[in-house]
Amino acid sequence: MKSIRIKRIYDKPAEADGYRVLVDRIWPRGIPKEAAQLDDWLKEIAPSTQLRKWYDHDPEKFETFSNKYKIELADKSEILTTLKNNAKTKTLTLLYGAKDTEHNQAIVLKEVLENL
């Protein structure tokens, strides 16, 4: 397997990113779609609107958020398998828009993919 990376969508795209996938439900503010240089936008793999609003990027809720998000991801096995297969042949970069680089859904998703 190559690698699975996470990166803010606001960071400059790089050749080393490989397959770039946005894993947010909502398009990030201020990013023109052409500038994002995405290979895919998987809204359906993002946390549900209800979970996203409950979490509200509160680091104190991250552990509970992570557990609830993993439960949601359990119903997305087909998408997870596709992402994992992509990571076997090239670098997979999971893009997110949150300001917090330590408490976001891409971190949880990366962990889930690595443990498949």
Description:
- The chain has 116 residues and is an alpha/beta fold.
- The protein has one domain.
- The chain is built from five helices and four strands, in the order ββαβαααβα.
- The chain has a four-stranded parallel sheet, covered by helices on one side.
- It starts with a strand and ends with a helix.
- The relative contact order is 0.28.
Give me some keywords for this one.
globular, 116 residues, alpha/beta, 40% helix
Structure, briefly:
The protein has 116 residues and is of the alpha/beta class.
Count the helices. How many?
A: 5
Question: How would you classify the quaternary structure?
Answer: single chain
- What is the mean predicted local confidence, pLDDT? 95
Domain module tally: 1
What strand line-up does the widest sheet have?
Answer: 1-4-2-3
Radius of gyration: 13 Å
Number of strands: 4
Overall geometric form: globular
- Give the amount of beta strand, in percent: 5-15%
Percentage of residues assigned to helices: 25-40%
Distance between the termini: 12 Å
Main sheet record = 4 strands, parallel
Regions with pLDDT < 50 over 5+ consecutive residues? Answer: none
Class by SSE composition: alpha/beta
Taken in chain order, the helices and strands follow as: EEHEHHHEH
Question: What is the element layout, followed by pairings?
Answer:
Layout lengths: L3 E5 L10 E4 L10 H4 L3 E2 L7 H7 L6 H12 L3 H13 L2 E5 L8 H10 L2
